Amino acid sequence: MLLNNKLNKRKLNFFIRYCIIGVFSIAFELLIRKLFLNFNLNNLISTFFPLLIGISFAFICNISFNFKIPRYYYKKSFIYFSIISISSFSFQYLLSKFLIFENLNYEITRFLIFGIVFLIAYNFHIKFSFAKNKKVGVAIYLDDNENIEDIFYKVGFYPDYIHVDFVDKSMNTSVDEPNFNKFLDIKKLWPNHRIESHIMSKQPSKYIDKLSKYSDVIYFHYEIDENINLINDEINKYKIKPGLVLHASKNYKNIEDLIKTYKEILILCIEKPGESGQDFLEKSGDLIERVNNLKIREKFNLCVDGGLSQKNISKIDCEKIVSASSVFKNANPKKQIKNFQKILNN
Question: Considering the chain, what percentage of its residues have pLDDT values greater than 90?
C-alpha cells in the first residue's frame, strides 16, 4: 500500500505541475488577448492568435519542466498537443453556449470551463502528446535463481516498466533453461506495469507463443539462425510489438534498412548476452549515435540495455533504459531508479 501511495504521489506531481503550467498559460493567453483588443483587432484574431501563443507557451513549459521527451519527438508531440488543446478549447466554447454564463466576462468563463474539461484534456495529453517521456525499466531474468518477491521488495512500483530477460544455451552455454513460470509471479506483483521481453536465443520462434501471454513487446536479436522477417511476422500475429536487438560489439551496415520496419529497437551494450554485471562497452556510444542520427529516428523507440550507471546514462539519448545490477546492488534501489529517471529526463 505504501509503495502504491508513493507511485500515485509521483503521478500526482506530474498532474500538479501540468495544472500550474495550464493556469499560467491561460493567464498569458488572456493577457495577450487583452493587448490585441486594445489595438482594436477583431474578436476572431484576438481570440485565436492568443490561444496559439498560450498553447505554445504551455507546450514549451511542459517539455522543459514536466514531461521530458526526446528532442526528435518535439514536432510530433507539438502537433498532438495543439490538436488536443484546440479541441479542448472548442469543446469549452460549445459548452459555454449550453451553460448559463451571461453575467460573466470572457476571462472568467474561460477559467471556469477550462477547469471542467481540464482532466479530460490531461488524459489525452498523457496518451498522445507526452507518451514519449523517457522511462527506466528493471531487468528480471527467467531463471530459478531469481527471487521475484525479493526484487519487488527492493524496487516496488518505482520502475516505469519491467524488462524480462531470458537466454538459452544457443547464446550462452553456461545457463539453465528459462523458467517461464516466473512470469506468473511478475504479473501478480506488477499487474499494471508494461512488460517487455528480451529473447536471447538463436531460435526465438520456440518461445514466442509462451511470451505472447505476458508481453507488450518481444525483442529478438538480429544475429539469429532464423529469418528475422518471419519472426517479426510471427510476433505481429499475436498483436504484440516486435523489437529488434542490435549488439554494440557488432558492425552494422545500412542500419536504416535493418530497422525501418520496427517500432522498438534495443541496443545491447555488454559483451556477452545473458550475464548481469558486465561493463558498458565503450563502442556502444557510436552505435547509439548512428541510430539517433537516422532520418527515420522519430518512427521508433530506442531502448539501451547493459552496463548502465549514473555516470554513463547522462550521455545517452534514448526513450528507455534497462538496468539490473546498478539498481539491485545499490544500497537504496528505489532511490537509484529515481536518480536514473531524473538524469535521463534532464
Answer: 45
Q: Cβ(82)–Cβ(55) under 8 Å? A: yes
Q: pLDDT tens digits for 7-16?
A: 456 677 788 8
| CA 220 – CA 225 distance, rounded (Å) | 11
Under a CB-based contact definition with an 8 Å cutoff, are residues 261 and 241 in contact?
no
pLDDT, one tens digit per residue, over 174-197 is: 888 788 889 999 999 999 899 999
pLDDT at 99 over 70: no
Q: Tell me the three cell numbers of residue 88.
A: 479542448
Residues ≥6 apart with Cβ < 8 Å to 329: 277
Lowest mean pLDDT, pick from 132-136, 155-159, 251-255: 132-136
Using DSSP bridges, classify how beta strands 217-221 and 241-247 pair: parallel, antiparallel or unpaired: parallel
Cα gap 322→308, rounded to integer Å: 8
Strand 161-167 to 194-200 pairing? parallel
Instruction: Report the alpha-carbon angle 7-15-308, nearest 5.
Output: 50
Grid cell, residue 6, equals 508513493
- What is the Cα–Cα distance from 100 to 109, expressed in whole angstroms? 10
Q: Do 262 and 244 meet the contact criterion of CB atoms below 8 Å apart?
A: yes
C-alpha cell at 31: 493577457
- What span, in angstroms and rounded, lies between the C-alpha atoms of 212 and 217? 9
Handedness of CA 13, 15, 20, 25 (dihedral sign): positive
CA distance 249 to 271: 7
* Tens-place pLDDT, residues 280-291: 888 899 999 999
Alpha helices in the chain (DSSP H): 2-38, 43-65, 74-98, 106-124, 148-155, 182-189, 208-211, 228-237, 255-259, 284-292, 310-313, 325-328, 333-344
Q: Name residue, grid cell 484546440.
A: 86
The answer to whether the pTM exceeds 0.90 is no
DSSP, collapsed to helix, strand or coil, labels residue 194 as strand
Give the separation between CA 172 and CA 199, rounded to whole angstroms. Answer: 12
Dihedral sign, Cα of residue 293, residue 294, residue 295, residue 296: negative
> Would you call 329 helix, strand, or coil by DSSP?
coil
Q: Which three cell numbers stand for residue 312?
A: 554513463
